[in-house]
Each structure stands twice: as C-alpha cells, then as structure tokens.
Amino acid sequence: MKNIAIIGAGMTGLSLAYNLQEHNISIFDKSWRPGGRVSTRKHDNYLFDHGAHYLSTNHSVNQLNEVITKYNLGQIIDIDFATDYLKNKKTRKKIIIGQNGMNSIPKSIFDNIKVNSYLNSKIIKISKNSNDLFSLFSENEVFKDFDYVLICIPYLQSKELSKDLIDFTKIVNEPTYDPIHTVMLSYKDNNNINVKAGLNLHKDISFFMNQNIKFNELSHDCWVLNMSSEYTNNNININKSDLEKYARSIFEKTFGIKNEIRLIKSHRWLYAQTKVSYNSISKKNWINSKDNKIFLSGDWILGKSLSDAWNAGEKLSHYIKILSI
C-alpha cells in the first residue's frame, strides 16, 4: 500500500481516488467542497448549476456510467434544445443531470470513497526529502511522507506548484483554456420559454439553460447564461454590474421578457474549459517527473467535458497501479 496525495477534488482527482482505493489516499482541495468546476450555487432560495451543465448520454467513458449507476447519481431528462438558436436549429435532446444539481455527482462520489480528505486546504509547496518521500505544505499545516503526488488542478497552477520537481523545458506546446463569464438570473414568474437550453443565443452568449428542469423546488424562473469565450477574453475584467446588465438585456430582448427580475449574479471562470488539450499536442495522457512520483492530470489532458476529466484520472490510475506493484 502506497501513500498517495491527490491535489484537487474535481472529477479527475475523484476518478483517481476512486480507482486507487486500495492505497492510502489523501485528497486536498482549496475549496470547501469537492467537484471543482462541477458547481451548484445557492443564492437565498435560488439554485444554479453555473459550472458544468449536464453530461452527454453518448459520452464514451464506460466507468463513469458505471459509477453514476452504482451510486444512483444521475437522471436522464429529455428537453427541447437549440443546437444553434441564431439559426433556429432545435431538437429534442436527452441529457444526464445530477439528482440534486450537478455538484451532487462529485459530492456523492466523494462521500462514497474511503479517503483522507482535507478541504479548505490550498497546497502552496511540495518538497522531496532524503527518503524520496514528499511533503505538502499549506499556509498552516505540513502533510508528510507521500510516495506519489498527483496534481489535478488547472495546468498553469499545476505547473507553478511542481516547477521545482518537473522539467517543463521539453514541453514546447502547452494546453490552453478559455475563460467564461457566467450569469445567473431569476424571475418572479414563469417566462414560458419553450426551449430549455441551447447554443448561440447571441454572438456574445454561447450557452443558456433553464434551472427549473433540474430543481423541482424552485418557485421562480431561473436561468444560467454562459458568455462566449471571445466576449469573455475581450472583457476579462469587466465590472460585474455592467456584465450582468448587458447579459440581462440580451436575454430579455431575445425572449420579449417583461417579468420582474428577483436576482442576478455573475461569476468568472478563468479556466472554464479546455481550448487545446495536452493529448492533442503531445499524444500523452499525463505529465510526470523523471522519477515517476509526481504526475499532472486534469480535464486539460483530454478535453473540456466532465467525462474527459474522469477519463484522464482513470487512465493515470492504471499507470500508477503498474508502478506501485
């Protein structure tokens, strides 16, 4: 049995923890909850999936399907979906959502695996001692004697944390992300918008989705809008009130909304989705130290979806098992 530290409790970190349960696993995350960008936000009595919105029914990661079924984590719903709203292209689409918001998927996986967990613990340094074991440092604590350290946070943060332990000079092309501004809106009454989700609502809004189809307890009409990556890049530091006013005006003009708004909030995801994956430029499924003790992984390895994140962890876990025999 090896002592393994996993930094990052998003879907890749949870995939690694799930697949390496025969070892002594300690999982660290700077957030108070697991899930990373699979995030469900609550404001007063309003609920919004403002990170990952859904899981495709046709994703090809068999193990993720098995885990969702094993722990009864998801439900399939059939919705009216705009494949391109600006071009009036619409269809019926089956999607997988969490039983109680998308974050309930990683939260339930986290609750069902046997690991040592350290939430609200941002790791700021990793060092190797004379016994070839690793220590992790947060601002207030030191965690010692790990055989492996698996870092599953956004690439640039991973690189900064491991730069003294991994030679990055050979990585000529690096994975990149798109940032996304997300806007959450709630209206007093139902706006009776038939299409419940879709792409390309506007040149500056790449995605929109109704939240009432996910949360039966919502008494108000709730929506999430994703601004396009181009708009976000061009307005990366926009004042929140200006962003919210602009997104709201587009949404209300598009659907002719005169309804009273009850809440509007926004959030900037700086590393929202993978733009160029590491595998696409290197054909490799992780980045590792020369001694095969420090590994970097995440959704940025394979792609931008929730299933890509799980798949990246599953692939790395198979290699860790071989190394630890």
Features:
6-stranded mixed beta sheet; 8-stranded mixed beta sheet; alpha/beta; 19 strands; FAD/NAD(P)-binding domain; 9 helices; about 325 residues
Describe this structure in words.
The chain is α/β, with parallel strands linked by helices. The chain has one domain: FAD/NAD(P)-binding domain (3-Layer(bba) Sandwich). It contains nine helices and 19 strands. Strands 5-7-6-14-15-16-13-17 form an eight-stranded mixed sheet. Strands 8-2-1-12-19-18 form a six-stranded mixed sheet, sandwiched between helices. β10 and β11 form a beta hairpin. The relative contact order is 0.20. The model has no long low-confidence stretch (mean pLDDT 96).
In short:
The chain is an alpha/beta fold and 325 residues long. Helices cover 26% and strands 35% of the residues. The chain has a single domain (3-323), classed as 3-Layer(bba) Sandwich (FAD/NAD(P)-binding domain).
Order of helices and strands: EHEEEEHEEHEEEEEHEEEEHHEHEEHH
- Principal-axis shape equals elongated
Rounded to the nearest angstrom, the distance between the terminal CA atoms is 9 Å
CATH class: Alpha Beta
The count of β-strands is: 19
Please bin the fraction of helical residues: 25-40%
Given as residue ranges, the uncertain stretches (5+ residues, pLDDT < 50) are: none
From the coordinates shown, what is the CATH architecture?
Answer: 3-Layer(bba) Sandwich
Strand neighbour order, sheet with most strands: 5-7-6-14-15-16-13-17
What percent of residues are in strands? Answer: 25-35%
> How many structural domains can be distinguished in the coordinates?
1
Can you identify the CATH superfamily?
FAD/NAD(P)-binding domain
